[in-house]
Every structure is written in C-alpha cells, then in structure tokens.
Automatic annotation (TrEMBL):
Pfam families found in the cross-reference section: DUF707 (PF05212)
Segments of this protein annotated with the region Disordered: 303-343
InterPro entries with a match to the protein in the record: DUF707 (IPR007877)
Name listed for the protein in its UniProt record: Uncharacterized protein
Compositional bias (Polar residues): 307-319
Residue spans of biased composition, Basic and acidic residues class: 320-335
Organism annotation: Anisodus acutangulus
C-alpha cells in the first residue's frame, strides 16, 4: 500500500512539471500565432488574401533582359537615382549633366515635358535611361506620379534636378561621399553666386568650405538671418532646382507634394520636416561640389538672352521648345511667363493655407520644431 502511494506521488511529481511545460509551450505558440495574425493586419491594402511571403512590397526602375540572367552591376553600393524634367532644346546641357552620374551607380530617369523622345536616341546613355513623356508638365507633376516611395525604395539617394544647371565643378561620387559622412538627409550642391542668380543666400557657395548648414544675412536683401535663426531659409533649407533626398527623407517629402499643384512653390520651406530629425543638422548645402544655375524659363517660356552665364556662352539653350511642340497659347512669350508666375504665386498661397489648415485640424500632431533644438553649424 505504501509503495502504491509512493508511486502515485512520484507520478504526480513528474506529471505536474510536464503539464506546466506543455501549458507554457501552448501559451507561447498561441502568442506567436496571435502576433502573426496581428502582423497580418498591417499588410498592404489589397494583399490580405495572399500568403505573406508572396507579397512584393517595393519595386525599382531596373531594366531586365527578355531572356537569360539579369545584368549584374559592378558597384556593390546601393544605386541612386537621377530624375530630370527636360526639353529637347536643352539636350546638350542635359547630356553634360547626365554624364556626371556614372551608370554603374545611378539609374537615369528622364521626364520629357515637350513630348520629344526619339531625338534623344543618339546620346550614349539614352537606351539605358527610363523615358517618360507628358506635354507641358513640371518636374513635380512627374515626381508625384512616377517616383512613389515604394517604386524608388531601392535607391539610396534621389537627385531631382532641373535641366538648366552647369556641372563643370560637380562630381557625383564625391558628392555622395560628403553627404554620407555629414549625415545629410536633404541637401543640394551650392550655387556659384558669381555666375548665377541667387534667390536665397543660404544656397550660395561659401569658398573654402566643404558644407554649410546656415547663413547670416543681417543687411542684405531678402529675409533677415541671424546667428541664432532656426527657421528656413536661414537654416534647414534647400532650393528646388537641385535637391537631393535620402531614401527615408524622400518617403516623407513625396507626401508633401500636392497632387493638384503644378509648381510646388512653398514645399521647400517645409522639407525640414522630412529631415529625419534635426533639420539644422540633417539639411545642408555642399560647397565643394557646386553648380551654376542658368535660370532659364524653359517650361512655358522663351529665349532668355541674359542666361549666357557660363564662360560667356549659352549651353545649347537658345530657346524653349517650339510652340507647336509645347502647345503654348498664341500670345507673347512674356505673357506666358507672367501667367506661369501668377499660377506659381497662387499655388504658394494655397499651399500655405492648406498647411495651416492641416496643422489646425490634426489634434495629434506636435510640431517638432516649436521646441529649441541643438544647433550644428
């Protein structure tokens, strides 16, 4: 009898830990399954009926052969993207720009605002570039529709440039090295003030400098900028002719571009919100790799004689595309430019009002730049 009791006691002694272990295993497995199911709730819209492993969330602009293995890149570093809105009249200058971006490290995407595509076939890089054509559309119209963050998620940096830039003193490889070392999420090459019209003092090249993040403008024209100024365009600012975005900053900036606006005026003042942290530190102008901005009124414009800036020459920029190609209204070219400027200013006011309204209505949003931030000069 004693042996029977002893056996039962021993059985329970062994059984209880086993039950505890089984219960724990069941609990952990259940938690894992619940976690998995909760993750399913975060799937991209429309993929709920698909097994998770088959969902390809992102894409890129790489071309693939119709047969055989895909082309292998020589570069081990992530590719970056150069996207430009161009017209055929700027062909020579655009060619000079694109040649500055090695095809081993960059994908080239060309937006044709004049509808002319075939006449670019004779440039060396044309067959490997992505060509998109839409009449009379701006760089920002194209970017909003063809540079969705999920499409360009594979690219480390997005260069979204105008066509009227002089690149004699620019090297893309050195530029990438600098912005990586400096931690710049949003940047631009500096502008040569001696050969360009400067709209914002911050973008002017500082000779002898590598990078600068702020400007001081106490007596000059434009907005006053002091040593302790913390707002754009005194700091945390780049202009819209040659911005460069990191992958993360572009994912944010794409949302700021308004789908129904054409010229994106005002967006530059808000890009600091996409700087992935302190805009004073993470937004900057690279002085050692700089550009000339010819300031040509190409889209919807006409000849601009004062644009013969670089070395006293106009880089194949004698005029904007022909009226037949651009479908411009039958009016004097200056009337067209005035209409474009009027539209730009109207959109600027609408953007400001839209921003104010969004801030007012979003009760959960906290402006990260209302509080003092550590400044980096």
């Amino acid at each position: 009898m004693a042996d029977t009791k002893k056996t039962k006691t021993l059985l329970w002694t062994c059984l209880i830990p086993c039950l505890v272990l089984l219960s724990a295993a069941f609990f952990i497995a259940s938690a894992f399954i619940i976690t998995e199911c909760k993750q399913d709730e975060c799937r991209p819209e429309g993929s709920e009926t698909l097994p998770r492993g088959i969902v390809a969330k992102t894409s890129d602009l790489e071309m693939h052969p119709l047969w055989g293995p895909p082309n292998k890149r020589k570069s081990k570093s992530p590719m970056s993207l150069l996207a430009m809105a161009v017209g055929i009249k700027q062909k020579k200058n655009v060619n000079e720009i694109v040649k500055k971006f090695p095809k081993t490290d960059f994908v080239i995407m060309i937006f044709h605002y004049d509808g002319v595509v075939d006449e670019w076939k004779d440039v060396e890089w044309s067959s490997s570039a992505i060509h998109i054509s839409a009449i009379n559309q701006t760089k920002w119209w194209f970017a909003k529709r063809f540079l969705h963050p999920d499409i360009v998620a594979e690219y480390a940096y997005i260069f979204l440039w105008d066509e009227d830039l002089g690149v004699k003193n620019f090297n893309a490889g050195r530029y990438l090295s600098i912005i990586k070392e400096e931690g710049l999420q949003i940047s631009q090459p500096a502008i040569d003030a001696e050969l360009s019209e400067i709209h914002h003092e911050l973008t002017a090249r500082e000779k002898g400098s590598r990078v600068h993040r702020r400007t001081i403008n106490i007596r000059g024209p434009g907005r006053r900028c002091y040593e302790d100024s913390t707002e754009p365009p005194c700091t945390g600012f780049v202009e819209m002719m040659a911005p460069v975005f990191s992958r993360a900053s572009w994912r944010c900036a794409w949302y700021i571009i308004q789908n129904d606006f054409v010229h994106a005026w005002g967006v530059d003042f808000q890009l600091g919100y996409c700087a992935q942290g302190n805009r004073i530190s993470n937004v900057g102008v690279v002085d050692s790799e700089y550009l000339v901005h010819y300031g040509l009124p190409t889209l919807g414009g006409a000849e601009n004689e004062k644009s013969s800036l670089a070395q006293g020459q106009t880089p194949n920029q004698e005029s904007s595309p022909k009226k037949s190609q651009m479908e411009l209204p039958e009016s004097h070219p200056s009337d067209t430019r005035n209409a474009v400027r009027k539209q730009s200013l109207a959109e600027l006011e609408r953007f400001k009002n839209r921003w104010k309204k969004a801030v007012r209505e979003d009760q959960c949003w906290v402006d990260p730049f209302q509080q003092p931030v550590e400044q980096k000069r």
